[in-house]
Task: structure prediction
Amino acid sequence: MSAGVLARTRELAAGYGRVPAIEDVSFDVEPGQRVALLGPNGGGKTTLLRVLLGELRPMHGTVEVRGRAATVPQTERSRLDFPVSALDVALMGALPRLPWWKRPGHTDREVAREALERVGVAGRADDTFGDLSGGQRQRVLIARGLVQDAELLLLDEPFSGLDVPAASGLESLIAQLAAEGRGVVIATHDLRQAQRWDAVLCLNHRQIAFGPPDEVLDREVLEATYAGAIVEIPGSGHVGVLPAHHH
Amino acid sequence: MIDFVTDPLGQEFIRRALLEVGLISLAGGALGCWVVFYGVSYAAESLSHALFPGLVVAALVGIPLLAGGIPGIAIAALAIALIGRVPGIGRDTAVAVVVTAFFGLGALLALSPESPPGIQNLLFGDILAPSNSDLILSAILAAMVVISLVALHWRLLAVAFDRTTAGSLGASPTLADAAVLVLLAAAVLVAAQGLGTLLAIAALVGPAATARQFAVRVPSMMLAATLIGIGAGVAGLYVSYYAGVAAGAAIAGCIVVAYLAALVASATRALFERPLAATALPEAVR
Result:
């Protein structure tokens, strides 16, 4: 893998049983790149993120990740009634570099506080994680990734459930993190966001397309990615994806 | 009035019982918080029931109760793991089968005409009569539980917070589950010795469930659970002393009373807080 690449897959296939959930995935993430991961629910986005994280081994093909990768999961999956502070959650990012019997120390706390400050939630450090707004929770989980010192951040639908100001705030934070040389892979359903980022990976069990958004995002690719769930916005020439059902 | 408090303390058996109550609360209170978060209350109850035949054998042979309990609990855990692997039998069923079989075996041994009188104390405990070796073994097990919980705290926390991403933080959910179960077995041994195999679960789950009603962080919840356990234990011993009722049952009863009081307090607070929450301002930082 060349020095400038943070993550690379070639003909990657992965899944949970014998049948792969994703196949034939080949793409690179370079430092400073925001890569949109587009695809229908159940199309393999989370599977790909788990492979990049090293939690799932490829069935076929290769995956290489330089340095640390950190995940920013959907916060609905964590227990919102769990009695931890935002600082505690950010501090969990120190665990990978500690032996199992060691507790995070004073320096780790400082690092975690700085990370919360970086993402703009230092004022809520001592509040219960579940009491924060959706946008703040995403920021705390991004801070956890920063404490992990991750060069590659994997965000799983970070905008779902956020209102417009929260989403645009999060988007500028992502831009900042990329400007510092991190690679950010963002699973999303929002095509307009994807158009503003550096690369797009369309995934529907297999890789439909990968490249800069203006080259990749055409009607044909979107139809293959989302099957029938494409609508044209009348009179605008824009296409959009029917909102996904969240259960 | 002061005699009311000091009278029981003049009795050697009450002082020993207080020591035992302290050890049970130390092991059970802190670990109980993880029992609640990991949803293993059923496993805790099962382990304490499966312990019964080991305790009976120890009492019949005349060795320290814990020396019989430890192999007994290990055999039960092994049997649950093995039967759980039989196709078509779920883990739940395996636990039920093993626990019933073990408990029945214990009852068969305990209720046979040859068994010495008083062996039924193993069911409801005999907190008033721990031997020196019982107390020392309890202290060792309680210390082991507390030290392990301090060392493992952050891993257990990461897994309880979000199992799906804990692995990427170097906290394996499988290992965390295993650690909680092993420590649970140790705490059950300590609690069953004083409260019996039927009431041990009260000391493990009750104080933690009570503390959960108001504690806002895990460490303060552990501390609160331990103090609630000690408080209920002391209150139970006094009730037993003055009302002449069984000590183990009185302690379990006090734990239940504490839980109900916390439940009522928390429901009342929620009733008053709700109108405030509805008018709360939107967050300034998003």
User: Anything to note?
Assistant: The first helix of chain A runs from residue 45 to 53. Chain A has a mean pLDDT of 88. Chain A touches chain B at residues 53-55, 69-71, 73, 77-79, 82-85, 88-89, 91-93, 95-96, 98, 100-101, 103-104, 120-121, 123-124, 128-129, 132-133, 135-136, 148, 162-163, 165-166, 169 (CB under 8 Å).
